[in-house]
Amino acid sequence: MLFFATPAPVKSAHLSSSVGSRLNTRGTTRPKQSALMSMDDEILAIDVGTSATKAALYCPAYSSLARVSRHTHDTYAHGFAVTQRPSNWLSAALSACSEVLRDARNVTAISVTGQMQDLIGVGDVPDLLKDQALLYSDARAVDEATRLSQVTGAEILPTDLLSKLSLLPCPSGQDYILLIGGADFICYEFTGRPNLHFTDATTAATTGLTQHPHRKYNTELFKQAGLSSFIPLLPEIVPRPIPVGRLCARIANRIGRPELAGIPVVHSGGDAFSVTVGAGCGVVGSGCYVYGGSSGWVGKTIGADSNNLAALGLAHAAVDSATIVAGSVAAIGACLSHASATFLQCTVSDLSKLAEQSDIGAAGVIYVPYITGRRCPPARAVGTLHGLTASCNRGDIARAILEGLVFSLFDASEGMQCGEVSVVGGVTESSVFVNGISAMFGGAKLQERDVGVLGAGIIGAEALGLDTMDESVGSLYRVPEKERTRWMHAFKRWKQIVSHMEAIW
Ligand SMILES: Nc1ncnc2c1ncn2[C@@H]1O[C@H](COP(=O)(O)OP(=O)(O)O)[C@@H](O)[C@H]1O
Ligand SMILES: O=P(O)(O)OC[C@H](O)CO
What is the ipTM of this complex? Predict the structure, then answer.
């Protein structure tokens, strides 16, 4: 079990919150004396995902979500540029909140999580950021990354925030502020655009702007890059999930619940943190999960001093002594949308159904899903569709897409010693995906789809002083041994193709 650290003094108008509250991963709650809410209260949880913003009510007493409302927003992609409109996040959040609040009686707090590693500006921003957030997957800053790698001697990627900052003119004053995650933006708007703005350590750890334990910016790196003038514009990194302000009257009115003005708004961390907690894997030794969302990773929590053999080690937003390990493939949503829009010309949901018409191994069709590069293990890579014959049909291709995603996730988990996993996220709508994950990892526990909002609810309850307790959910599903052997065989063929491709990438 992990414990939130005693609150550290932060230069701001944070609300006072609980002391020494314990972070559990799921379950019923015991109110603590210092709690700012009781177990019958409800938390309005929000997740600014890539495909949609979701809102849900989390009730600590039942440890569950009532009614999730999902409002989609568009992604604009031109070459390597990938953006979304923050104003769409706000309108999606307002609509989703109004909807779930319809029957709510005891809402006493709001808790917000969301996508990470974005560049968002608010105020009198440079043109590049005018109602446009550069998403984590935006890789246009290729030349900037090359230059920064040379001047700093570190390996700086085009998706790193330092490269994205280099696309902006050097700021002369503080006419605008910068935010680095969807939750930062919604917290900022919901608390009435205060002078101070916040992010969390998990999100900060994805940006390349910090070093372990990711609670401070790496000022030396900014100096070497000649970008120090951006530091005052960046959000303060909260030491753990805490209330960062109170709901302002303007937003309370817009969600149709003026009486909620003044309730605490908790920044519950980037989605790698909330998904980990929601999947029941937020404490050391609590197991592994597979997240199939727009991004996609295999995750678990380890001690910060353990050997991390996986490529990505992210900060645990609540405690310094833990690390979230993420074997990331980053682009599940992009692969599904791309395949649906190009070779299959159908919706993602139809792709998912088509795939059920084919059998394990997809009649020899193999899909390598690195259409936006490979993150874990890191390598220059592109996507591949291999093994087409005159007899293969749309079902085989659809199945190959989903199998390729399963195999890339399994491959990205090398060194993580996962064993059985929980499987979460929107792609769990696909039975092929869930079967494949179960076969490759030796068993899968199918959990609630929207664990990001669930995690935000649990983290919000903890941040306000409630002590949540573990409780296992979902039953373990194992595919029959014969089927598993066939999946293993298909994976072996997939790996062979990847090895051949590595020689020419
Ligand atoms: N029927 C379906 N079958 C397979 N994948 C699906 C289906 N519906 C949605 N998805 C995928 O689920 C993902 C969105 O999942 P979600 O957990 O909501 O992620 P995010 O928080 O990134 O929006 C997208 O990659 C989308 O393509
Ligand atoms: O939108 P998601 O949940 O797939 O997550 C996006 C990640 O935060 C990117 O780092």
Answer: 0.98
